[in-house]
Amino acid sequence: MKVSRSFSSSCSYSSITPEIAEHIRQTVGEESVITGHEKLEAYGRDATDLIRLPELVVEPQGADQIQALLRLANEYRFPVTPRGLGTGLTGGSVPVCGGVLLSMARMNRILSVDPRNMIAVVEPGVVTADLKKVARAKGLFYPPDPASLDTCSIGGNAATNAGGPACVKYGTTRNYVLGLEAVLPNGERIMAGVQTRKGVVGYDLAHLIVGSEGTLGVITKLILKLIPHPPAVSTLISFFPDLPSTMEAVTAILTGGHIPSAMEFMDRHCLELVGDLLTFESFERSGAFLLLEADGLPVMIQQEIEQMGEICLTHGALDVFLAPDSHRRNKMWEVRKEVSLRIEHHSPLYVPEDVVVPIGRIAEFVNGLPLFEKRYTMKIYAFGHAGDGNIHLNITATDRNAGPRIEQGISALLREVLSLGGTISGEHGIGFAKKRFLPLELSAESIFLQKKIKNIFDPLHILNPAKIFD
Ligand SMILES: Cc1cc2nc3c(=O)[nH]c(=O)nc-3n(C[C@H](O)[C@H](O)[C@H](O)COP(=O)(O)OP(=O)(O)OC[C@H]3O[C@@H](n4cnc5c(N)ncnc54)[C@H](O)[C@@H]3O)c2cc1C
User: 380: which strand partners?
Assistant: First the structure.
């Protein structure tokens, strides 16, 4: 959705005067500074429609430059917004108060992958898929797998605690961050966390910075846990008459003792958009799609996937299909990955939401979606990580001017999620785009405490201001 907000209203910072720009150049080096309207345009947005050009971009190659930049920012009081690769879905890396955009794209070295200790040490600008490939070549597995993994950075994943299909079995990015190096807003550099599998020494600052969306520190290095790569994977897709029966099957699979390594769903609206990629006849009469995977030893996963298929059939599945080879498997995943792109291109007004409900209440929640569609004249494309109860609600309208009505509809949907014991964001975070909804979920006391934490780290609100809360 095009959001035309006056970003500057809540920001009062020094702009980057020629004098300050010159000082930045001298401090971080001319080769790390990017200026000029055309070049800056590439840094003024993420995957939302929020746009605000930075006044200047710094693209450092080391933590020293970041320390020096943040010291200058405190001296002159200009804001600094960290950016990974700009695939975020909440405007988190959009420099809404102007100032300097700190692009981490050039700090993209995989420093080590150590098979003996099963640890990787990486710079934050590494593309997630690249780390997964390098680990795989050594027989190791880095499980976090956001659908954007070919285009997003590990630093951005850590800052947003990114998830993905594998979370249902393996957990989110936070579960793989053992330790990190960060430059704090005052320019100090700290190491937080450990290089070991465990550690309880003082407060867990590493995991406070993970998920803080670039508001508490700039992550400059990550120590990541790796695990042995599963020897095999088996994939199944299943078509259901409707979404509620799909979700009943999901709950039955999980409560039946199965731990799939992926459990992705799409509703009928989504199926209509990607129908040309589906070669299964049953798709025509189905109302929802479920993709299931099991990984591990070949003999075990074969049995596991068959049992999960049986559960689907007893819960009303119209058909189940096994992917016999990696080619068919890739085709099935292509369908799931393509859907979000098509929704965005298809709809004049589009707002992605990323809610989570307790797994036992998914069916109840999705059952109510048509009522919201009717009441607020909107179309909701639902897909996502069924096994986590993480439902990407892509709310769309055919009329670009429907913004206020859609806003009411979203607010009502989020209240419904909370009344079921859910949360308003499972993996995308709050950033700028969702912060007006924060008080729906967090108490005034919780927000107060979180703002105090921000003030301790960043008393002058230099780092990524106007994100999460004002
Ligand atoms: C098609 C598509 C599919 C997606 N699928 C998923 C998915 O399955 N799961 C999921 O979780 N997300 C998903 N996302 C959202 C997005 O890819 C993730 O949030 C990702 O983690 C962002 O990484 P990035 O490098 O692009 O970060 P950016 O968008 O550049 O930044 C995101 C946030 O992290 C902060 N940040 C970035 N780097 C640093 C750093 N080094 N230090 C401190 N702060 C930093 C920024 O300030 C900002 O607040 C998807 C997005 C798209 C467009």
Answer: 395
